[in-house]
From TrEMBL, chain A:
Keywords for this protein: mRNA processing, mRNA splicing, Nucleus, Repeat, Spliceosome
Name of the protein: 10414_t:CDS:1
Superkingdom as given in the UniProt entry: Eukaryota
GO molecular function: mRNA binding
Region (Disordered): 108-128, 165-200
UniProtKB/TrEMBL annotation, chain B:
Protein name: 13473_t:CDS:1
GO biological process: mRNA splicing, via spliceosome
One Gene Ontology CC term in the entry: U2 snRNP
Length: 1146, 103
């Protein structure tokens, strides 16, 4: 033993315990404070505000403006409301203020730059920024800013201050958050002592996790609140009364507290003194108890039980909870409460509550008045916590009351717009539609002059957000009132000399109109183009850009008509593309791209050549947006008639391939798609070989996304243009490349599969030499470890099976069939489905008799797979089995088919309609193969099951069996089954009859007399469904045998159908009406008319109502045919009712 | 424009419907029927019904050439004259309207 070993042992002994390194502790401590919720990402917030971008939240900056004066109203003028002049003046002021601020900012910047230039000639580093901010903060000017515009003085640029203020309420930097206010705490906010609960020095009572510690004084969840409340109640000091009650009155003495005693008041100390809940009860599972909401009432007085009442609702609806005596309130207050209750019911109530409340609020809208209604609805819509559903409901309320209020809404138009306009740019399509509908209704209710007067001040509003939404709203107004009504205003705005913002917005309105109304702009195209044309030469860059975009939108909407309207803008556009660079150029190019397709061939050719120079120059542009537009324009130019293939080949293609067919383009999804589309379009002009020849080598490129892009292009080009152009050499390279790309894929992609399938199918017979190689690739991949690879290989078989057959490779296919058969034990359902699909395509192609493995071996292997409940497997399997039953039933024993029948019954439950239909058809095939008796017995037994869908499918199957095996094989057994005294079975029989007569059509004439007694019975049954189904049967029957001489039986049935016309259940009355309709066809309208005439003027209204309904139905169906059958009515002293013409006789 | 007006009216209509009517499968059918002039309802009176019959009859005679030539021969008039008279008669086929009794 050496001393060193002893030393080591001693050292080891000195360690009392092994602990984790310090870093780990620190780590744990750090993460503990954050309380990371692993499901936080999954728990998607439903609040609208949480999914909005910074731009969208700018809506919150807009205040709901005070009411405006309605110049069209006859009543007295409300002095508080603002007139148009006031609003315009305010807007002017705001603009002026903005302008001054901007000036000041510029001046400051200049001064600063000058200072920097003076002080240091060295290179600017980003640290300089800090000093600039500081300088600004201390500057005198910025303080005035703050006062005037309520701006954050830390803003670097007051010009975009709107964004900044918009951001601040949402996303604050943690430095400017006061710890108590923020709802989500970072660990930095907490006091160090109890921030780290587990390893903290002071053992505060926070082991129970939810107990309030000083660090968590403001609990965040209702859960925590509940706990807190609970604890407070238990831990509160006992009062004197309680103590008196507890102790006997004698034998105890109440002591005076010592004179120096002061009770402890600090919260933290108090909590330390109390026992934690942990110690008392141990761990408690929180029960999901939703009814117990502390602080939140379960029932609101006058509203009833609501499904939920959120904390945030208190803010708006709190008033309902103060138990004031209603008799003391004024009329106005009562009205307010009434509206509040209705709104609360609509927002939080159950659907029936909501419905009645919505009706009430609609009916009483005029009594309530526009003011009180909107003053409550609009703030709710601006609420921070609004969810989609709530917004939808409130918007619906506005929609409904708009109709009722009509012109009364005028003073509130702007308020409503402020709230509704943001919907127009919502990312949700339905929200946008809703917004459009409301604004359209609003503008119809308020009238065009009011709308223009209200929205005019927003057109040159300082905030771009406001201008944007206003432009969209205006386009909706235009679609509601028609473009001509708005045109004079638009022209004036687009020519505004006062501000470029107004021009910009005006032109944007035109753009939005084009987008919104599509080809409906055509009648006004010339006017619209002329209204904005001058914008192309505006001195403001932004105006020029938006003008070009508006023209692009107009041209897109007008395509393929209306080129003559664009004459006036052609020249400025073409000179423009030479003058501009960057964004402006992109917009101009876009406009040209949309105009060129409208031109006739000659002009298109000329202009394409003009623009192509610029386009080719811009091929190299690094700007993504520019790239997209250039690609789009090239596509549009190439698609026009006038452009010659020769020109494209020589001028465009070399540059195009050099710049766009690079690996980088494959990485961005949108670029990728655009490049593929454009290339395909070019291929339409120059042919397959030109394009495929250029890119085919890249199928062997080392970048996979790029290979994919090549493959997709090849697929699209070949599928559109065929492979006839491809010569032997190219064909070889192509197949080689495709095989390489197919084998080398690391992510199995449908693109590769489609490409492979398309090319092979296009080449047809020419692919024969390569089939051996392709097959061995498939076989190799079928054996792969990865399921995806196997699936893809099996899918490929089904794609190329037809071509293989055409090439005469039966032997190869037989081999593939055997291999697939061996893989039927596959455990991945997706793969199994594909394998079954592959087998089916092989069976389809080579036929039942020459199939290897033979059908008699194959089918028994499929029977157990029918039990598989995976949708894809189910579908593929039933398809294959159905195919075999159809074509090769004789290869399999009847007993096997019966076994399959039983399996099939379960498949009638499948969710997918295709599967159910395939199953039902298979029943038909099997019945045909082995005779209907056994199959029918199985099906009739199945009518007894409980499940409705299963029964319905069974009835369909019975009908199909009857159709395939002739009805007389089925009807006796079926009608016999009707004698079973069980509702479901009888209904099932009737339903089968209904389907049966629907399917067999005019074959039904031989069976009508057989089933009539049964139908008589059913039509007299007590059960409604009996009569309903029987009526449906009568309908199908009568439609089937029209003109075949079965009128006697049908008339007999009509007598049984007729008494049912007084049914009220919707399905029954519907069936009865349809039966009468069917009989009308078969018996002729006169018969029905004679029945109807009995009741048209019956003294009882209920009778008249239904008789007139039948009359109307009859009238619409056979208006002309009724003419000779109307009853002859005698003239009276006043009127002549006789139709004399009909009594003329030659 | 017209289309939108139509939507407007149809929506108001929907609001005005009672509760049961809205769930009735036939309500749509009734709406469709009400678009035909010749259809009736429980409060249609004899006069209105007859007027519709007469107008339909005249329209039908005019539409069927064989019928109108038959009438022409019977009345010894030319076809165009008979046609014209029928069209004229469509205006007030049964004479002056009967005043509706208010109930």
């Amino acid at each position: 033993m050496s001393t060193t070993a002893e030393d080591l042992q001693q050292v080891a002994k000195r360690l009392a315990s092994y602990t984790a390194p310090e870093e780990v502790y620190n780590d744990l401590v750090a993460s503990d404070g954050e309380e990371v919720d692993p499901f936080a990402q999954r728990n998607v917030s439903r609040r609208i505000i949480d999914r909005e971008s910074g731009y969208h939240t700018r809506r919150l900056n807009r205040g709901i403006s005070p009411e405006r004066h309605d110049p069209f109203s006859e009543g007295e003028v409300n002095l508080e409301s603002r007139s148009y002049t006031d609003v315009m003046r305010e807007a002017e002021l705001e603009r002026e203020q903005r302008r001054v601020l901007q000036k000041l900012e510029e001046k400051k910047k200049e001064a600063k730059e000058a200072a920097i230039d003076q002080s240091s000639a060295q290179k600017k580093r980003r640290w300089d920024m800090a000093t600039t901010v500081e300088a600004k903060a201390t500057s005198e000017w910025s303080k005035t800013d703050e006062v005037t515009a309520l701006k954050n003085r830390w803003d670097e640029t007051p010009r975009v201050s709107i964004d900044a203020t918009a951001e601040t309420p949402r996303k604050r930097s943690r430095w400017d958050v006061t710890p108590m206010v923020s709802s989500k705490k970072s660990r930095w906010d907490e006091t160090p002592a109890n921030g780290n609960s587990q390893f903290g020095v002071t053992p505060v009572g926070n082991l129970g996790l939810i107990t309030p510690t000083p660090g968590h004084l403001a609990p965040m969840t209702p859960e925590a609140q509940r706990w807190e409340k609970d604890l407070d109640a238990r831990n509160r000091p006992l009062t004197d009364e309680e103590l008196d009650a507890m102790f006997p009155s004698t034998g105890y003495k109440i002591l005076e507290p010592p004179s120096g005693y002061v009770p402890i008041r600090t919260a933290a100390r108090k909590l330390m003194a109390t026992p934690t809940p942990m110690a008392a009860e141990g761990f408690v599972m929180l029960e999901e108890d939703r009814t117990q909401m502390y602080d939140l009432p379960a029932e609101i007085p006058g509203v009833g039980n609501l499904p939920f009442f959120k904390q945030e609702d208190m803010q708006h609806f709190g008033k309902l909870l103060d138990d004031k005596d209603e008799s003391e309130l004024s009329v106005e207050e009562l009205k307010e409460r009434k509206i509040m209750r209705l709104l609360l019911k609509i927002k939080n109530g159950t659907p029936p509550m909501r419905k009645t409340a919505l009706r009430q609020i609609t009916d009483k809208a005029r009594d309530f008045g526009a003011g009180p209604l909107f003053n409550q609805i609009l703030p709710l819509l601006m609420s921070q916590n609004l969810e989609d559903q709530e917004r939808h409901l409130l918007v619906k309320v506005i929609d409904r009351i708009l109709y009722k209020l009509d012109a009364l809404v005028r003073p509130y138009v702007h308020k409503i717009l402020v709230v509704i306009e943001p919907l127009l740019i919502d990312e949700d399509y339905f929200a946008r539609c809703e917004g459009r509908e409301i604004i359209s209704n609003l503008s119809k209710a308020a009238g065009l002059p009011t709308m223009i007067a209200t929205m005019r001040p927003d057109i040159d509003h300082v905030d771009e957000y406001v201008r944007n939404t206003t432009a969209r709203a205006f386009s909706v107004v235009a679609s509601a009132h028609g473009i001509p009504a708005l045109l004079p205003f638009l022209k004036a705005v687009c020519k505004s000399k006062k501000s470029w913002q107004a021009r910009h917005t005006g032109i944007k309105i035109v753009q939005q109109i084009a987008i919104l109304m599509g080809c409906a702009v055509l009648p006004h195209l010339k006017n619209l183009v002329e209204a904005i044309a001058h914008g192309l030469e505006d001195e403001q860059q932004k105006v020029r850009t938006i003008t070009a975009l508006a023209i692009a939108a107009l041209a897109e909407a007008a395509a393929p008509y209306g080129i003559e309207s664009f004459d006036s803008v052609l020249k400025p556009l073409w000179t423009g593309i030479r003058k501009h660079r960057g964004k402006g150029l992109a917009a101009f190019l876009k406009a040209i791209g949309y105009i060129i397709p409208l031109m006739d061939a000659e002009y298109a050719n000329y202009y394409t050549k003009e623009v192509m120079i610029i386009l080719i120059r811009e091929f190299q542009s690094p700007d993504e947006e520019m790239k997209k537009i250039v690609l789009k324009v090239v596509k549009q130019c190439a698609a026009t008639d006038g452009v010659q293939p020769q020109y494209i080949k020589e001028e465009i293609l070399p540059e195009f391939f050099k710049n766009f067919w690079v690996r980088r383009m494959a990485l961005d999804r949108r670029n990728y798609r655009q490049v593929v589309e454009t290339t395909v379009e070019l291929a339409q002009k120059v042919g397959v070989t030109e394009i495929v020849g250029r890119i085919v080598e890249d199928l062997k490129d080392e970048s996979e996304p790029y290979r994919k892009m090549v493959m997709e292009t090849v697929e699209k080009v070949v599928s559109q243009l065929g492979a006839a152009d491809i010569d032997t050499r190219l064909e070889e390279v192509l197949i080689d490349g495709i095989l390489y790309a197919f084998q080398e894929q690391t992510v199995e992609d449908i693109v590769m599969l489609n490409g492979f399938g398309t090319v092979v199918n296009a080449l047809g017979l020419r692919v024969k030499p390569y089939l051996q190689q392709i097959t061995s690739t498939i076989l190799w991949r079928l054996n792969n470890k990865s399921a995806k690879v196997r699936q893809q290989a099996a899918d490929l078989i089904s794609r190329i099976a037809v071509v293989m057959k055409n090439c005469g490779e039966e032997k190869l296919m037989g081999h593939l069939g055997v291999v697939l058969y061996e893989y039927l034990g596959e455990e991945y359902p997706e793969v199994l489905g594909s394998i079954l699909g592959g087998l089916k395509s092989i069976v389809n192609v080579i036929g039942m008799s020459s199939m290897t493995p033979p059908i008699k071996d194959l089918l028994p292997r499929l029977t157990p797979i029918l039990k598989n409940r995976h949708e894809k497997v189910e579908e593929a399997c039933i398809d294959l089995v159905g195919r075999i039953a159809d074509r090769g039933a004789e290869f399999v024993s009847a007993r096997e088919w019966m076994r399959i029948c039983f399996e099939l019954l379960d498949m009638l439950k499948a969710h997918k309609k295709g599967i159910r239909r395939a199953t039902v058809n298979t029943f038909g095939y099997i019945a045909k193969a082995i005779g209907p008796q056994d199959v029918l017995a199985t099906l009739l037994n199945n009518l007894k099951v409980q499940e409705r869908q299963n029964r319905v499918c069974t009835t369909v199957a019975i009908a199909i069996v009857a159709e395939t095996c002739a009805p007389f094989t089925v009807l006796p057994a079926l009608m016999n089954e009707y004698r079973v005294p069980e509702l479901n079975v009888q209904n099932g029989v009737l339903k089968s009859l209904s389907f049966l007569f629907e399917y067999i059509g005019e074959m039904g004439k031989d069976y009508i007399y057989a089933v009539t007694p049964l139908l008589e019975d059913a039509l007299m049954d007590r059960d409604l469904v009996h009569r309903q189904t029987a009526c449906t049967t009568v309908k199908h029957m009568s439609l089937g045998v029209f003109g075949l001489g079965c009128e006697d039986a049908l008339l007999h049935l009509l007598n049984y159908v007729w008494p049912n016309i007084f049914e009220t259940s919707p399905h029954v009355i519907n069936a009865v009406m349809e039966a009468i309709e069917g009989l009308r066809v078969a018996l002729g309208p006169s018969t029905i008319l004679q029945y109807v005439l009995q009741g048209l003027f019956h003294p009882a209204r209920k009778v008249r109502e239904i008789y007139w309904k039948i009359y109307n139905q009859l009238y619409i169906g056979a208006q002309d045919a009724l003419i000779p059958y109307y009853p002859r009515i005698e003239d009276d002293e006043r009127n002549n009712y006789e139709r004399y013409e009909l009594s003329m006789w030659l | 424009m017209d289309n939108q007006k139509f939507c407007f009216s149809s929506v108001t209509l929907r609001i005005d419907f009672g509760f049961q009517d809205r769930f009735n499968l036939n309500s749509q059918l009734e709406h469709l029927q009400s678009k035909y002039v010749g259809t009736g309802h429980a409060d249609t009176n004899k006069f209105e019904w007859m007027v519709n019959q007469h107008r339909d009859s005249y329209a039908s005679y005019i539409g069927h050439h064989a019928l109108i030539s038959y009438f022409a021969v019977a009345q010894n008039e030319c076809i165009a004259r008979v046609k014209f008279e029928f069209v004229e008669k469509m205006l007030q086929p049964c004479g002056l309207p009967v005043p509706r009794d208010e109930q």
